[in-house]
Amino acid sequence: MRDIVMLSRFAKPYWVQAVAAFILLTALVFLDLAIPRLIQRIIDVGIAQRNQGVVIETGLIMIGISVASVLVAVGNNLTSIQVGEGIARDLREALFVKIQALSFADLDRMRTGQLLVRLTSDTAAVQRYFQINLRIGTRAPMMMIGSLILMFTTSPSLALKLLPLLIVTTLIIVFFVSRMEPLYRTMQQKLDTLNTVLQENVAGARVIKAFVRADAQAGRFQATNTDFACTSITVMQFMALMMPILTLCINVGMVIVIWSGGLSVARSDLTVGQIVAFTNYLLTTMTPLVMMTMLSNTWASGVASAKRVNEVLDTEPSVADAAHASALDAPVAGRIEFAEVSFAYTHDHGEAVLSNIDLTVEPGQTVAILGATGAGKTTLVNLVPRFYDVSTGSVRIDGVDVRTLAHASLLQQIAIVPQETILFAGSVRANIGYGAPDAREADIVAAAHAAEAHDFIERLPQGYDTRVEERGVNLSGGQKQRIAIARALLTRPRILILDDSTSAVDVDTETRIQAALARNTFQQTTLVVAQRISTVLNADKIVVLDRGRIVAQGTHRELMQDSAIYQEIYASQLGDGVAQTSAHDAE
After folding, report:
1. CATH topology match: 322-412+495-503+530-551 vs 414-492
2. What are the angstrom distances between the C-alpha of 33 and each of 161, 277, 279?
3. What kind of fold does domain 414-492 have according to CATH?
4. Residue 572 pLDDT > 90, yes or no?
5. What single-letter DSSP state applies at residue 403?
6. Alpha carbon of residue 59 to chain centroid
7. If 0-12 CB within 10 Å is exposed, 13-18 middle and 19+ buried, where does residue 287 land?
């Protein structure tokens, strides 16, 4: 319940509607509880004494109460729906904002499927919890308490005879409800796994088809789906046991009332009207218990989902602004220093991805990071925008440790073209202008020219207004990369990070992009992660990484003379003969 209480803060903006719903619900309970007493009056005063006027008068009062009950119930439903939907909207927004604030390390730990379930299924469960409580959940205990009081005022002796049965029924409900919450939490965890498998299969459909792994993936999904179904069946079967047990309790209660009450009527201790009223109050006492049982799945799933939602909301980003973080107001010069940097993705005895990195990049320089797959190239450049924090050492920009800077102001100085090109549904123009939505048309076109994207964009059906479909599926890999480069250049960053961002373009296009970047009058510091050695030949400095360590750095000419590893890479990509010739020329 602690998690539900924590989420109740989302109901504060709707407290007026919530109070109105509660007042209407209370009025509805009083109206419902008045009906059995009026039936008693009809029987004892009207029918027993053959008084037609009492029957008509009381009947009209009952009709009026019924009409009022309908109007009050409608008002309660409308206000409670407003509260529930408002809470769901605000909760989804809070979750979305929180996810956006999480660092890369946090997102690495949380799978996409889990986050999607929390944004959808878990949020809906919390919404149902609050909404049902304002409509039925609060009404049920109020009806039960009111009915118990009226049962004792109608016939204390008969009420005492039923009290043990009511206690047993209550204990049965508590037993079932207390065991439902962990069952529903397990079911939601299974749904997490199912959504993760589904998301991976949808995103990787082309790879699955290319490797003819559809049957294997179908088997994996079937196993996960069956696991979820089995868990759901277990929960539903457990819930199904409650109704027969509670129905038995109700029937036993009715037998006790008719048997004991009938004897009391025969002795003239009670009237027939009192027995009828008592029977109605018994039903309005037991019915809320049954109602609460039926709603127990909503409560249990709401509590379980609230716990999972709070897990996200309570997550403190592993990368956050320091208490007195300073902002980078003026454009930076762009000097980058890595001072004895080591990094591991898991800080508790995790294997180091980078070890003892010492590297200085001067303002305006183009520095290329070269190395085999898994050498730590992308990890190294991800430390500059502080997507991750170093394990030891420091990363400094213009002599200032990035951990002491306001993260938003740091990112305003940096533009990144990541390994995996991400485009958004919308026009080509909107994608290029994503980081600078107020950019002029001339600047967008200039950025496209610099990224060697203008010509192919002009050939698209609507040019810059051509719609980019979801994930850019209507564009080639090279076209997407060039649009991503244009998007980065448009922001005129002081530091530009190109993470293997030309891997999908041909060598000629790559050469033209490099030449355009070199001609750029806005000189930024550029870090280039590359797999192809042709990408790095003209860099001011080439840094060779091997197993997370810098094994060589210098210009192409210097490395051809001094670095055996660089020579091997060069020879493997461009041929031994070329390597020997270049090495001879370097001398």
Report:
1. yes
2. 21, 10, 12
3. Rossmann fold (3.40.50)
4. no
5. G
6. 54
7. middle
Mean pLDDT on 254-279: 78
What are the structure tokens assigned to 395, written together?
A: 């990363």
Question: What's the pLDDT score for residue 233?
Answer: 87
Contact 11, 18 (CB under 8 A): yes
How many C-beta atoms lie closer than 10 Å to residue 71's C-beta? 12
Exposure letters 332-351 (e unless 16+ CB within 10 A, then b): bebbbbbeebbbbeeeeeee
Residue 549 DSSP label:
E
For residue 580 the two structure tokens come to 């020997």
Q: In CATH, what class is 322-412+495-503+530-551?
A: alpha beta
Angstrom distance (rounded) from CA 423 to CA 429: 11
* Average pLDDT of every residue of the chain: 82
Q: Please give the model's pTM, rounded to 2 decimal places.
A: 0.68
Q: What is the DSSP string of 465-522?
A: GPEEPGGGTTS-HHHHHHHHHHHHHHT--SEEEEESTTTTS-HHHHHHHHHHHHH-SS
Domain ranges of the chain: 2-313, 322-412+495-503+530-551, 414-492, 555-587
Cα–Cα nearest to 172, from 97, 106, 238: 238
Q: Per CATH, the architecture of 2-313 is what?
A: Up-down Bundle (1.20)
| Cα 381 to Cα 364: distance, rounded to the nearest angstrom | 16
